[in-house]
Write a structure and sequence with these properties.
heterotetramer; A mainly alpha (about 425); B alpha/beta (about 280); C mainly alpha (about 375); D alpha/beta (about 240); B: about 280 residues; alpha/beta; 2 domains; 4-stranded antiparallel sheet; 11 helices; about 40% helix; D: about 240 residues; 6-stranded mixed sheet; about 25% strand
Chain lengths: ~425, ~280, ~375, ~240
């Protein structure tokens, strides 16, 4: 079948692309400006694929993606900041423990909740919240004792290695924290109807932004410096790293969508009531998708934090939270290929070309031109650039047609039209 | 043919005192019904009598205000719709509810999801376990489609199918969830007499082949009277009569509330009246 | 109704009391936090309520536009907040550059000062309303109407685009400039204080300790809002156009079959909503005298939350939601935490949605076909 | 001739829904279109009403080409449709629903006269005039739908599936009323699944199959046509 070949071609194209860009960066042919934009494009691809899963494939209109992106960014930045600036693994250890213990707590609460029939979402939420709080406090307490030994172990490694390991773990943990928060937030909120869900998630993004504005005072993370912006984050996000994460996200998404779980996810978008009638646990499907999408957002945020080495709460303003939504719609709802292309186009055109094309003194026109482009795009192609089109590897291949081994006796519709009677 | 209503077997589905209120309005009031294994039971009544609400209560879409529904000795109340489907009750909808943008094959494969046999992790890494089960699942779905003579249309998008085939696919999809009890909500709606005859054949066919018990809501008397063994008539959320088709056709209460004088006699009368006018 | 397999713990859980307990704790905590301080300083508390009222009434005017447009085309019109900004800007130019508010005094010199100012101010408000209405109809025709049969999200994205456009176009140096502009009111502010009766506060004097302040602004805002709200309710409930609006909101193809020009009705809805936002722009600018190109975003967002809180699509809902929002914001800022007030506003929204998933005046569970 | 439809072609995207349909309605007639689901009956009505635009062909009403006339203008000219599935404005009262039917009418007295006429035909609507449309029963909704269409005082009334979802006894009542309306001088184009009922009240009929007219004629002839009897009347 063609699947094998398209898989091969996909990987070859990807590797070629990866090496080509890396070579261009390495030789200095690609300026730092454009290299950064490519990284941003890849980061936006990851966030937007996450959102496409939630909105395009699962049908849940979420504006919360940017909040989870912010959570991932600040979590990972804090971990690497503490490692490079404070020279200890406190961030890593505590976050790791929080992730593990909270997962355990969620697992235990889920066990209890599954036994209690007729529990409403809000009560379940409360139980999870209690579990989360206990686990988090426990994690911080236990974590204190583990900071020194783990720091020592990591220091045994060569410094470049250690920092890359910390970075990798920080990115994954950024994703995990975002996923865990999305799980507990999604629990009550996912029961809301479509537009109300969108508004509640928009609220989430705003709440996160406000908390980040006050991260040094209210939350007590002085290194995040609240509304002044966090500086001193190591610039660890290389082109190779983003490309590897992007491809991992792509493959996971593709494999998931081509499975029974993916179909169940899509059936929820198509018709919730029919999906329930087919025995699909709609609430569970929504939660899984929401958590996975938010995990991707967290990953992307973590990568973004280490692109410029600087984070500011204004980056996570709710106005910007429409960006992934615009990318997803622009690329085509339910098209992973479209999302990736749209994300890179968005980064390169909006941040790159428009800056260069507009003459001196007209930089402020960038955001006058952008909405006009958006408007024209929507008027010309409301279904998005790609519609539901996918590149070969990402496309689902129809199985070989069925060859009846024996003849059944189905009630065959006798098609004899009335035409002859005219 | 068996006469299950007199057989001493235990009821497959047992409904007692079922009541559902919407903002003080009783859509279903003190509804009782027993369905025995292998039966084909009809539920009829004027629009808004609460028939579809009964379906929604059985399948867990609504939670009843009062009453008990027992399926194979399990109380269904408090269970989620998907859990009820997994217990063995499947349904179709009055206005066809396919997954419109998915292929015919995927529509059926989604019904097999509960028996997929592999987890999220297997799906994400596409391991051996995934390969094996996904292949088996697909083959089963394809074979199943062939039973309904639809295997040649596996790649077509469901919403592009002609109306009759959409109905057939919806019934096929419901059966793919391997139910013991099938609830059909106005399957003949919008069909012409020829299609209705085909549908009746199809219902007979699936009933034999899948060893089903069927509860049917229908407006077309020909279908109900033609294939049902027992009929329950509802009006204003309450049962006004139950019995064999013959008994129902002659029940004074039913004639008054629902059937009227009979279509043939009426049409004759209207014709006379028209010639009078003209 | 009870499940047979219920254990003792299950039965405890069945009451859904855990979730309610959480809500109760949160509400009690808030009431305690506010109430404690309110008892210690009741004057301040009443002052806050008055301030919240002023804010809430302005929000109500904006929220009505969101709710009406959503009701008829199911579109969250993100550009609505920027229409509000344009309304404020128009009145700024009308008052600052063209002295529109002085025309009655110039035309009829004999008129008493109060009357001529009243007519002048009303003219300014009417001008803003008219220009906003025209702007909104233009936007609707260009950006939303062509997408009426496209997926809903397309129109939403366009709305975001329009919002960006209005903001950044406004920020251009020859339009509204990217700066904060001090707003000149068409009338002088007169402040009264309540302490042993109502007294007028002399200009330049500090209010006495423990006095509760209110200004003619508050009265104007409440009067104008109530007047506009009543007219709107009359239009929607009693006139043929209003009934056609409700019919179109419910079912557009059938409305067309009845001979209703649905496109026209939609335009009228946009115009009405925008006119209210225009009036709100003037009132907001007189209350908080500073205008700038971003000013529509936050009030727009708050009004939008208010509309959702009240049950989007419902006119009384928008009004009630806005009053709640105004109070919540002022009380949160005054008693809980100023920087967190946006977060608190949204937390309230989310909590309300969890209890009433379609807002306060939203439709409860209806029978599905 | 009151209405003439000439060689109408309508597409939904790539789907050719009406493939060259021609038929006519004379003053005072009841004409019925029968056919299976998806044959194009509602599409025909919606094209006449101006909701759908044909790719080619003409609709001529009282010697005037109304093919491209907007829907609201067509109502003003004297064609009104009572749509499939009744489509009552559930959030408006019965009275307001009727007022919407008279949206194109400007003469207050004329509206009041129409209202009286509707209440005479459907006394039950008068009893419920202040109730919300959505709280009516199925039969009452159908009456309201027809009454609402009559409020515009049409010369041609288009009825889409008036018997849908009604109990046999109500179907009888509705068809009686349809005949009465016709007797008062309104021409009717009736689309029905229930071919037997439709042919029994109609003067003439057309049989639609997958977007084409395959048979036409006097309703008695159609009823006696063995093919029609087999496919649509359920004779064995």
């Amino acid at each position: 079948m063609n699947t094998q070949r398209s898989t091969l071609i996909f990987w070859l194209v990807f590797l070629g692309f990866l090496i080509l860009i890396q070579a261009l960066i390495g030789t200095g042919l690609l300026s730092n400006f454009w290299a950064t934009l490519l990284k941003i494009g890849a980061v936006m691809s990851i966030v937007s694929i996450g959102l496409n899963l939630i909105y395009g494939f699962n049908g849940q209109f979420s504006l919360g993606q940017w909040g989870f992106y912010a959570i991932g960014a600040y979590t990972a930045a804090d971990i690497t900041y503490r490692w490079t600036q404070l020279h200890n693994a406190s961030g890593l250890v505590v976050v790791l423990l929080v992730v593990l213990l909270v997962s355990l707590a969620f697992f235990l609460v889920a066990k209890i909740v599954s036994r209690l029939r007729g529990l409403d979402a809000l009560s379940a939420f409360t139980l999870y919240l209690i579990g989360l709080l206990i686990a988090a406090i426990l994690a911080v307490m236990v974590g204190k004792g583990l900071i020194a030994p783990i720091t020592n172990i990591l220091n045994l490694l060569p410094a470049e290695w250690a920092i890359q390991i910390v970075f990798f773990l920080a990115v994954i943990l950024g994703g995990c924290i975002a996923a865990e928060i999305s799980y507990i937030f999604g629990l009550p909120v996912l029961t809301l109807g479509s537009d109300y869900f969108g508004i509640a998630t928009l609220g989430f993004t705003i709440i996160v932004k406000v908390l980040l504005d006050n991260s040094d005072t209210l939350l007590g993370f002085t290194e995040m410096k609240g509304a002044r912006g966090m500086v001193g984050i190591p610039k660890l996000t290389s082109w190779i790293w983003v490309a590897v994460f992007l491809i991992a996200v792509l493959v996971v998404t593709r494999n998931l969508l081509h499975s029974s779980h993916g179909r169940a996810m899509i059936s929820v978008r198509e018709d919730e009531i029919a999906a329930k009638a087919m025995g699909i646990n709609v609430a569970q499907q929504k939660t899984i998708t929401f958590v996975l999408g938010s995990f991707f957002a967290g990953l992307a945020g973590a990568l973004y934090a280490h692109v410029n080495g600087f984070l500011h709460p204004n980056t996570f303003n709710f106005i910007k939270s429409f960006d992934p939504m615009i990318i997803v719609v622009f690329g085509g709802l339910g098209s992973v290929s479209g999302t990736v292309v749209a994300a890179f186009t968005w980064a390169l055109v909006l941040e790159g070309l428009l800056r260069l094309v507009l003459p001196q003194g007209f930089e402020t026109w960038r955001f006058v031109v952008y909405p006009l482009l958006l408007l024209i795009m929507m008027l010309l192609r409301p279904q998005g650039l790609f519609g539901a089109f996918e590149f070969p590897y990402l496309r689902q291949v129809l199985p070989r047609p069925f060859q009846p081994r024996e003849l059944h006796q189905p009630p065959s519709p006798a098609d004899e039209p009335l035409n002859n009677g005219a | 043919m068996t006469t299950p209503s007199t057989a001493p077997t235990k009821a497959l589905l047992e409904i007692k005192g079922l009541t559902k209120e919407f903002g003080g309005l009783k859509a279903v009031n003190n509804f009782d019904m027993d369905i025995y294994p292998g039966e084909l039971v009809g539920l009829i009544g004027p629009n808004g009598a609460g028939k579809t609400t009964v379906f929604n209560l059985i399948t867990g879409i609504y939670v009843p205000t009062a009453g008990v529904i027992r399926f194979r000795d399990t109380k269904l109340i408090g269970f989620q719709p998907h859990e009820i489907t997994q217990m063995g009750i499947a349904r179709t909808f009055q206005n066809i509810r396919l997954f419109p943008n998915l292929t015919v094959l995927d529509n059926v494969r989604i019904a097999y999801h509960i028996h997929a046999g592999y987890g999220m992790f297997d799906a994400i890494v596409h391991n051996k376990n995934y390969d094996r089960h996904e292949k088996a699942l697909t083959e089963r779905a394809q074979e199943f489609l062939s039973v309904f003579n639809m295997h040649t249309r596996q790649g077509e998008i469901a919403k592009n199918l002609p109306y009759g085939e959409q109905r057939r696919l919806e019934i096929a999809r419901a059966l793919a969830a391997s139910p013991q009890l099938l609830l059909l909500d106005e399957p003949a709606a919008g069909m012409n007499p020829k299609e209705v005859v085909e549908l009746m054949d199809l219902i007979h066919f699936i009933r034999e082949r899948f060893n089903l018990t069927i509860l049917l809501i229908e407006h077309q008397m020909r279908v109900v009277m033609g294939i049902c063994e027992r009929i329950t008539v509802m009006d204003f959320g309450e049962v006004i009569a139950r019995g064999t088709p013959e008994a129902i056709q002659n029940d004074e209460k039913v004639i008054e509330a629902y059937l009227g004088r009979g279509a043939a006699a009426l049409s004759q009368r209207l014709r006379e009246k028209r010639s009078h006018v003209a | 109704m009870e499940n047979e397999r219920l254990t003792f713990i299950d039965r405890m859980i069945k009451g859904k009391w855990i979730g309610k307990l959480l809500l109760t704790v949160i509400v009690l905590f808030a009431v305690w936090g506010v109430g404690n301080k309110a008892i210690h300083n009741p004057q301040l508390f009443i002052q806050q309520i008055i301030n919240g009222l002023q804010l809430g009434f302005v929000y109500a005017l904006i929220a009505l536009g969101y709710t009406m447009v959503y009701g008829i085309v199911r579109l969250i019109n993100f550009a609505h907040g920027d229409v509000f900004m344009v309304g404020a800007m128009v009145s700024y130019f009308a008052v600052g550059s063209f002295h529109l508010h002085q025309w009655p005094a110039a035309a009829f010199p004999g008129l008493p000062n109060f009357i001529s100012l009243l007519i002048g101010t009303i003219s300014v408000i009417l001008l803003s309303m008219a220009i906003c209405a025209i702007l909104a109809v233009t936007i609707e025709r260009i950006a939303y109407k062509p997408l009426r049969n496209a997926p809903r999200i397309s129109a939403l994205i366009t709305a975001i685009g329009v919002s960006f456009f209005l903001e950044y176009f406004g920020a251009l140096p020859f339009v509204f400039t990217p700066n904060f502009i001090t707003y000149k009111r068409p009338y002088e502010i007169v402040t009264w204080y309540i302490k042993d009766g109502i007294h007028r506060l002399e200009a330049g004097k500090a209010p006495p300790q423990g006095g509760i302040l209110f200004s003619n602004n508050l009265i104007i805002i409440i009067l104008v809002t109530v007047l506009l709200l009543l007219s709107l309710t009359y239009i929607v409930q009693k006139t043929k156009i209003g009934k056609a609006m409700r019919a179109s909101a419910y079912d557009k193809p059938t409305s067309r079959l009845m001979g209703i020009n649905v496109d026209g009705i939609i335009s009228i809805t946009f115009a009405l909503g925008a006119a209210l936002a225009g009036a709100a722009g003037v009132l907001y600018a007189t209350a908080y005298p500073q205008v700038f190109f971003w000013m529509g975003i936050i009030p727009g967002l708050k009004a939008f939350i208010a509309a959702v809180l009240g049950g989007i699509g419902s006119i009384p809902g928008a009004f009630v939601g806005a009053l709640i929002m105004g109070q919540a914001e002022v009380l949160a800022a005054g008693y809980i935490s100023t920087p967190m007030r946006d977060a608190i506003a949204f937390s309230i929204l989310i909590l309300v949605l969890l209890v009433r998933p379609t807002g306060i005046y939203g439709e409860p569970e209806r029978e599905k076909a | 001739m009151l209405l003439e439809v000439q060689d109408l072609n309508v597409y939904y995207g790539a789907i050719h829904a009406l493939q060259g349909i021609s038929f006519s309605i004379n003053q005072g007639e009841i004409v019925t279109l029968i056919g299976a689901n998806g044959a194009g009956k509602s599409t025909t009505l919606n094209t006449i009403s101006g909701i759908l635009r044909p790719r080619s062909g003409k609709v001529i009403f009282k010697d005037r080409d109304i093919t491209l006339t907007p829907a609201e203008e067509i109502v003003r000219l004297g064609i009104c449709q009572s749509p499939e599935g009744r489509k009552i404005f559930a959030t408006l009262t019965v009275m307001e629903n009727l007022e919407m039917g008279a949206f194109t009418q400007t003469d207050k007295n004329e509206i009041n006269r129409s209202l009286e006429r509707v209440f005479r035909s459907f006394p039950r609507l008068k009893e419920r005039q202040n109730q919300l449309g959505g709280t009516l029963s199925g039969g009452e909704q159908q009456m309201l739908a027809i009454g609402r269409a009559l409020m515009s005082h049409p010369q041609l009334l288009l009825l889409d599936e008036p018997s849908m979802g009604l109990s046999p006894i109500l179907v009888e009542e509705i068809f009686n009323i349809i005949q009465e309306i016709n007797a008062q001088g309104t021409s009717i184009l009736l689309v029905e699944q229930n071919a037997q009922m439709a042919l029994s009240v109609a003067h003439r009929g057309y049989v639609l199959e997958t977007g084409r007219i395959v048979l036409s004629g006097d309703s008695t002839d159609l009823m006696n046509n063995p093919q029609v009897a087999k496919a649509y009347l359920g004779a064995h």
